[in-house]
Design brief:
The chain has 317 residues and is mainly alpha-helical. The protein folds into two domains: 126 residues; 112 residues, Orthogonal Bundle (Cytochrome Bc1 Complex, Chain D, domain 2), CATH 1.10.760. The protein is 36% helix and 4% strand. Strands 1-3 form a two-stranded antiparallel ribbon. The chain has a two-stranded antiparallel ribbon with strand order 2-4. A hairpin with a 6-residue loop joins strand 5 and strand 6. It is globular. The structure holds heme C (2 copies). One heme C binds next to helix 8 and helix 9.
């Protein structure tokens, strides 16, 4: 009897020791990845490329990085605490504190794969592996321009502090995206469905927030993401940190079935709901989107599988 107790005691002790060692390992080990040399050729931009780059930067980067009129970065108040303290970094034109610390090659590699120039994978800005080369190059051309949005800021951002949960995922689950092997072409606007899918999934990443779980988003094969576009993941209202659930955008009664293109456009462009009320800042308005783009996204959303998921907000709207 005594012997059995002793064995159980020793086993338990060993188990606890292993768990402690594992926890320490996860806490202090940040995996790093090789930064492959990639051939990058950003053509010197004409004014229409710069305008395109500016619009994409406003749509895709400014929400997190814009502060005081420049892309100096800020603390992201909309990320739930379980992910840690997240700071969008200074990507203004400052030579050492801003985007100047990145070469074009490093920027392309980071924006594709999610691997930062220090070799760490950024779980929060995890990359756009399927964005077209044309769109990516236009963004980079804009980031190198002297537009007022790029005004050099001296601000030193706090580094992002991932939670233990994120460190655990970083050690065992998250992996950088593979760098594309050949050029990615923007689908022609004449192919409305392909164009809409490209915009919603590959460029703007609407499904990232509008699926079941942030940690299970699959940017390589978006439709493999659990609860694809059926909503339910929690974002915080950046104004008061109250939790807001993302909406079901699938063509189901509990989603957008019955909505018109006009109602959809008002919601995405201006944050206005069909009943006239405005959404929370957890879904920032996107006034930059054109009618053609919204119509394409809308057509595409009609074709995804309808999923029954009634999203019930915890707070009164
Ligand atoms: C969802 C919010 C969000 C969006 C959208 C976003 N970023 Fe970021 N960005 C961050 C955060 C947070 C960090 C810090 C990440 C980290 O340290 O892991 C960051 C870091 C960076 C960095 C620096 C990485 C480093 O080495 O510290 C660059 C460059 C960058 N972003 C560029 C961009 C560009 C260009 C876009 C638009 C295509 C963009 N970001 C869109 C949140 C965002
Ligand atoms: C940062 C996360 C996030 C991203 C990215 C995002 N959304 Fe949302 N969206 C939300 C949240 C949260 C709500 C609910 C807001 C509320 O109820 O106040 C919402 C609401 C909506 C609604 C209203 C639906 C309804 O039933 O009321 C539409 C339409 C919508 N989003 C479309 C889009 C489209 C299209 C994109 C891509 C261009 C997109 N969203 C990207 C978080 C996001």
């Amino acid at each position: 009897m005594k012997k059995a107790l002793k064995i159980i005691g020793i086993s338990l002790g060993a188990l606890i020791a292993i768990l402690i060692i594992l926890a320490l390992y996860v806490n202090f080990n940040t995996p790093t990845y090789e930064i492959k040399k990639v051939a990058v050729n950003i053509p010197s931009p004409d004014s229409s490329t710069l305008a395109h780059g500016k619009r994409l930067t406003a749509l895709m980067c400014a929400g997190c990085h814009l502060n005081n009129g420049t892309l100096e970065g800020k603390k992201m108040m909309e990320i739930p605490a379980m992910f840690g303290d997240i700071y969008a970094q200074n990507i203004s034109s400052h030579p050492t504190k801003g985007i100047g610390r990145y070469t074009d090659e490093e920027l392309v590699y980071f924006l594709r794969t999610g691997v930062k120039r220090n070799g760490e994978y950024s779980f929060i800005m995890s990359g756009h592996p399927l964005m077209s080369d044309r769109d990516l190059n236009a963004i980079i051309a804009f980031l190198r321009s002297d537009d007022p949005m790029m005004t050099a800021s001296e601000k030193t951002q706090y580094p992002t502090k991932p939670s233990f949960f994120v460190k655990l995922l970083s050690n065992f689950v998250f992996k950088p995206h593979p760098f594309p092997e050949k050029e990615i072409i923007t689908p022609p606007k004449s192919n409305q469905l392909a164009y809409g899918k490209y915009l919603a999934d590959d460029l703007l990443g609407c499904f990232g927030c509008h699926s079941a779980d942030f940690t299970k988003v699959d940017p390589m094969v978006p439709e493999n993401t659990p609860g694809f576009y059926a909503g339910g993941s929690t974002i915080l209202d950046p104004n008061d940190q109250s939790p807001v659930l993302s909406s079901n955008l699938t063509p189901h009664e509990t989603g957008l079935k019955g909505w018109t293109l006009e109602q959809f456009s008002d919601a995405v462009k201006f944050g206005k709901r069909p009943d006239g009320n405005f959404m929370t800042a957890a879904m920032p308005p996107r006034p930059q989107l054109t009618d053609e783009e919204l119509a394409a996204i809308w057509s595409y959303l009609q074709t995804i599988p309808a999923i029954d998921n009634e999203v019930v907000q915890a707070r009164a709207q």
